[in-house]
Amino acid sequence: MGTKNIILIGFIFISKLIFCQQNDVLTLNDFISVVKSNHPAIAQAGLDVDISNNELLSAKGGFDPIISYTNEQKTLDNKNYFQYQNAEIYVPIGMGIEVYGGVEKNNGDLINTEYTRNNSTYAGLSIPLARDIIIDKRRAALRQSKKMLNLSLEEQRLNVLNIIQEAEVLYYEWVASYLQQMLIGKIINLNIERLDAISIAISAGERASVDSIEMLSQLNTFRQIQFSENQRFRNISLELSTFLWDNNSNPIMLKATTLPDTNAFTNKVVDLNASLLDLPSIIKGHPKVLMTNFKIDMMNIEQKLKQQSLLPKADLKYNFINTGLSLPVSDATSLFNNNYKFGLDFSMPIPNRKAVGELRAQKSKVQWALQDLSMIKIELDAKLKSSLVNIEALKSQIEMIQSVLKYNQTLLEAELIKLSQGESSIFLINVRENKVVESNQKLIQLKAKLSQEYVKFRTLSGEL
Q1: Count of CB atoms situated within 10 Å of the CB of 193
Q2: DSSP 63
Q3: How far does Cα 18 stand from its chain's mean position?
């Protein structure tokens, strides 16, 4: 009876598995923190934002004042044709208006009669009357650059979301593999203890020798599973290392002694009530939707600019002119009395087919983008709802497999009692034990899938 008790004690184990961790533990939060800080793809996404910032700075440069200086002279056959100097400042301002002023100096024997001899000062402005009054290339470039910066920020967020999702999903695979490995390792140790107890029982004449063959078959089966799990764990560890980089962009390899946090699954179980979630708001704030909206905004800006091309180019120009190096103070009524230059530039292609064609093409691009936006929203809505369904299904499956595990454990314990009373066999014990092991393995897999599905839902929600 003593050996039977030894066997019985060796069997009561699976419902109270304890995994002792004496190695380094890499928690999920620490892992993701390193990924966010040093992953090259995340750094590249930041460079895209820097590029957009610099392009915005460049677009703002279209409104920078410009100073210029011209110095020309011509002599031929000892004749001083002309000496011309001009210092000017040019300032573009809003509404397409341009303000400028400068100082000219003209000397020579054969200067153009349009120019004022000796020193003269001028100040003027150019005002669009049709094309460019609503929007021009400078203002369009500035507005588009601002939208492009916002688009780059959302693209950066989307890239980070995708990388973090991929990293977290793999981390849960790593946890599941480690738990499976520990489960099988524990079972192998207990089967070795069981084999020793059986051998003692056989030597004492209490068990048939065939029981040792039954035990060896069971033990070798678990050893084969252990080999596969160990190989899988090493492969996942290597794959996980591809997400780890140091501050100098050098890859980091996980040490063989580094293990995952076995409690990572329990921290992810939260309630998600689909009826209480504001899916339209979630979709509206998703990076893909925001990126497409910014693209549409940029296209609308381009469309407004092309609409301006349908209008004639009509610019009103006025220059106030004075001899010498100063401008006298005058009231508005004297601007057209003396010392001024006034004109109107007008041009328009007929029938302006280039502008009409470009505008129609741009409108088609906008419609295409709007349809693309609708499809993105529908796709996100479907994926979010599908993810919620998967989460609820996995939670139900976990509850069911926990019940199955409990039942199998009860059946195993009952079979062990029968064995201690001489009413069962090693074969039946192995069958019951395999059911318990399968239930434990299934439970680990479902918990991993549930945690991964939460990660997917969070990514679809646009949440980092």
Answers
A1: 16
A2: G
A3: 38
Q: How far apart are CA 32 and CA 131, in angstroms?
A: 53
Instruction: Determine the pLDDT at residue 227.
Output: 93
3-class state of residue 2 by DSSP: helix
Q: Band of the pLDDT at 13, cuts 50, 70, 90?
A: very low
* Residue 307: how many other CB atoms lie within 10 Å: 17
Measured CA to CA, the distance from residue 287 to residue 284 in angstroms comes to 9
Rg (CA), the chain: 40
pTM of the model: 0.81
- Strands across the sheet containing 340-347: 66-76, 79-92, 98-107, 118-128, 313-323, 340-347
User: Are the C-beta atoms of residues 95 and 315 closer than 8 Å to each other?
Assistant: no
Tokens 């688009």 -> residue: 151
Mean pLDDT of 328-341: 64
Phi/psi at 429 (5° precision): -60, -45
Average pLDDT over the chain, rounded to an integer: 86
Look at the block and give the residue holding tokens 């220059």.
319
Cα–Cα distance for residue pair 464/441, rounded to 1 Å: 30
| Dihedral of the alpha carbons of 431, 436, 440, 442, in degrees to the nearest 10 | 60
What is the per-residue pLDDT across 302-323, written as a single tens digit (0 to 9) for each?
999 999 989 998 999 988 888 7
Q: Is the pLDDT of residue 159 over 70?
A: yes
* Token digits of residue 23: 């190695």
